[in-house]
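Please annotate this fold before class:
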Amino acid sequence: MLTQPGITARSNHSSFINNELAASLVLTPARRVGLALLSATLLLAMVACGSAASNGTPPPPTTPSISTFAPTSGDAGTIVVLSGSNFTGATSVKFNGTAAGNFSVDSASQITATVAAGSTTGKISVTNSGGTGTSSTNFTVGTPPTISSFNPTSGIAGASVTITGTNFTGATSVKFNSVAAASFTVDSATQITAVVANGTTTGKITVTTPGGSALSGTNFTITNTPTISSFAPTSGVAGTSVVITGTNFTGTSAVKFNTTAAASFTVNSATQITATVANGTTTGKVTVTTPVGSAVSSGNFTILAAPTITALNPGSGPVGTAVVITGTNFSGATAVAFNAKAAASFTVNSATQVTATVAAATTTGKVTVTTPAGTATSPGNFTVTNGSATLDLSIEGLYITQATQEYPNPVVPLLQNRSAWVRVFVKANQANTATPDVKVDFTTGPTTHTLTIPASAASVPLSIDPENAGASWNAAVDKTWILPSTQIVATVDPTNAVPEADDTNNTFSQTPTVQNLKPWKVTLVPVQNGANTGNVQNAPRTKADWVDFAKRIHPVPDAIDVIVGSTMVSSVSSVTNDINVWSTILNEVTAKRSADNVTDRYYYGALHASYSSGIAGLGWIGFPAAIGWDANGSFASVFAHEEGHNFNRPHSPCGGAGGPDPNYPYPGAIIGVPGWDVFAASNNLKGSAAYTDIMGYCSPQWISDYVYVSEYNFRLGSPIGDIQPDVQGISGDGLLVWGRILNGQVILEPAFRVPANSSLATPGAYTWEALDSMGHPVASVSFSAPEVADGGDDASLQMFSFVVPLKPEVLFAIQSTHVKSGNQELARRAIAAATDFQSDIHMQDLPNGAMQIVWDADKYPVLMLRDAKTGEVRGFIRGGNAQIEAAPRELEVRSPDDVRSGVARHSRLPE
């Protein structure tokens, strides 16, 4: 009792004593006397105790202490949370001497204060009756600057650099890799011009203002002394154009050949110069001079002498004769002619020898050899004689195909790491029984690979027919042979086994366009709809079966990275022939991809439909998410069709496909040029009029050159397939923003707090905005909304799905989210108040790895399911009651529109 205040103690004891005395009235006289004495004694003791307690002095108040505050900068109106101790009874909060607009003492260790108008940068103070506590660091009034770019990105000391960004007003410092700029000028709030100081090294740029500091995302590079690694050609005459390769050529002021200045030069890049050799130049080294210094080549540029011809062997022969020409200074020869008729072909064997082939229609006369240094003429004639053969074989063309190709102009580009076939088109000038081989050389740099293709028919055709596989010389080409700059040379009758009147037209060469496209990575997601789950790889079906047809027709590498994701539970209980059902499931698969922190994979949801005719697939145009049914016989072609949409293709005009491409070049969506299955063992050719394009609704299907090139260019330029870097400066959580736009009406789904990642929005016509309790925007993101190609009759369907990385203080400040177009609000949602979410969710284990979840659907319209261990999204459920098949061992359920603590977890017991 002594631990309680004295007054209370006396009151309690008095009550006890009075009660006991009252009770004593019914006792015997002796007991009454005893109790009276005892009561009196206790009363005196408690009075004494109470007097001692009432004379105590309360401890003096303790001075407040500020340990941290957040945010550390902001404008007037910014809400700042102070953490520390002894805040009870605080009477004043000031920012650099200016009283806060308002403040509240949340607890003894936290105060929330608002920055008042007129506040300046300085320390924060808190005052109570015990004194005043001051922060150790300043609160900065103002918005920190940002740097978005700078130009140029490299230079030397003295270079003027334009820095672009925001909030540059009042800048106090500009540094290049921690070295202060020699000078700088604040041109505007968004631009600074700074001069690089002596002693600066390569590194990031820093701009400092009273509002804080900004650091560039990339380095400013200090250019160094130039170097020359090579030049080509290595010899020539005055007027020769020479390409010089090396480093640090920016700002080049002079180029010389053996001390003679170049007639002219152009700095193509920091690593390349093109210079013209001047008159009077002699053999010697090449020099490049920049403001930083000079570079000298290790080898000489040789000034060539005029050629001479001393002999011809043989001195006569028919068309097709190989003639050895002997003389001097043949290096770099550009032409050989027989009586002014160009040789069919020639090879410079050495500086003293050339071998040339007599072309058709050549007549007797002098032989000439031309080099950059001049032209030499033979002292005597070469005499052309008549041959006895009349058959002439010629190669009219060739092409490499990886699915489709045009003829005679093979403009469809090729990609590395994809198998191919070569088709060589040979014809004869007369009826024949010749069966010549065709040799094809694939040369890249010093490496040559060779194919020898035997004749497949009993004679050489008299005309070219690309639609007939038997009328061309065809062979599979290893994918490793197809590289940028690969030259392909085909030769018919390479051993001269067939007597001909003219051998000069037996060779044909081509250098196709080859580029390296990104890998194609596919995640197949089995989708559970009620009691049905999409069949991805139950025997005998495999994951490879899903992508097989798509691999044959689309511009993708041979090796496709295909994985099977965990089963995703959809809020749709049954897959019916209804666009609203399909669009909801597609939106959920798309949201799963965003929340899974995936930037380089295409997601495809496999569904088990309750019908056999109707909607079979749905995919976004130009966005890597789609869904399709698992029906035997068609699942692979549906997959290939929907992936075509993901590769940015609309429909092709056949079979009533909605929204067809108005520029499709062929009637009835036929493929227009022959297709070729490079993975088939036989029946490779697909007739141009017999097959229709994959993006239509007709059959049989292949891919047209028009659609293939469009997909190729999309995959070449699209970032899909690249692993995007984490958002700089952001860690922790963000908000999953998702929804769809059906016939112009925005359906903004509840937001979910998820780990922040690189799934950023692509800027576009719409804006997502988050507001605080005062209606002030605290976050804003511009985004686009890709369309779906199969929206149905007169239906327009778009979607959006991305994660907005947000700092904790911004997350906690959000009270509502909005979607706008311009100034028009299209949809909004309120952020839910904090609840005891764990208690509101009821989870029960079921046999065979299943789980039952029951909740209040009015309070929580949709829930997100995640694997607590891997973070993978396992589905979205609605309606208040859901059964989860193949539930993870540890399940996490996330509350909608909850930026605070809406997470419930459940661990299944081992069965």
